[in-house]
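Case study B.
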Amino acid sequence: MSSQDFDLILDPSKLPEHVAIIMDGNGRWAKKKGLPRIYGHKKGVETAKKIILKTYELGIPVLTLFAFSKENWERPKSEIETIFELLKFYLENELENMQKKEIKFVAIGDIEDFPKDLQKRIKYTEDVTKENKKMKLCLALSYGGRTEIIRATKIIADKVKKGEVDPEEINEKLFRKFLYTADLPDPDLLIRTSGELRISNFLLFQMAYTEFYFTPICWPDFDEKEYIKALYSYQQRERRFGRIYEF
Ligand code: FPP
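Model:
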């Protein structure tokens, strides 16, 4: 299916380089249907697969999905374990597809928080796909923006202590090198589903000039058509990065 199949026609020359998504509303979607929350997560993985494929087809080079936040550790153990199982299952089953499509998988976040088997699977997927060039699929896992900034600060402080970094050299460019996203461009577009109007500790440093798109649709119901709508909305924006273009 191409973007022409939908009413909105995208301008291929104005596509974002990096789309980041807060996939919210799985639990509410399930509750509305009288189902346990985990059904929402299962359907959420299906939505993620569709959106990853559409991103690939459109030729958008980077997609970051917020799959598990630092705050998500506060959820019931059974829900957390289900999410881990879904993630592991996804990584195992999609590896072949990633290789076929030349998708490079990367994880950002405190991966060491996860059970060993999941950590191994994440690292294995990163390793096997590391030479792939067509698209980067980034999953934010046990990720928190403030933790990421503090972590980078500590690494730099340690380097200053050891005499490896001169405090005078610390600038945005150097700081970025110690973020999980060091190898990724900043997101051009953030999409959040389910009607919540906040960024919930996601990519705090990186989203300084990101365009935001919020939709009331819960993640399991988000589809290619809604994605095109978000991208179309992005293409109508004038990005000024703090500058002015007219007097
Ligand atoms: C938000 O819904 C979703 C999550 C907390 C993460 C769900 C994770 C997955 C579906 C796994 C992702 C896996 C892949 C492969 C991308 P919510 O539970 O916060 O919904 P609610 O706000 O309605 O409770």
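The pocket of farnesyl diphosphate is lined by residues 23-28, 41, 44-45, 48, 65, 67-68, 72, 83, 86-87, 90, 194 (CB under 6 Å). The remaining cases will be described in the next quarterly update.
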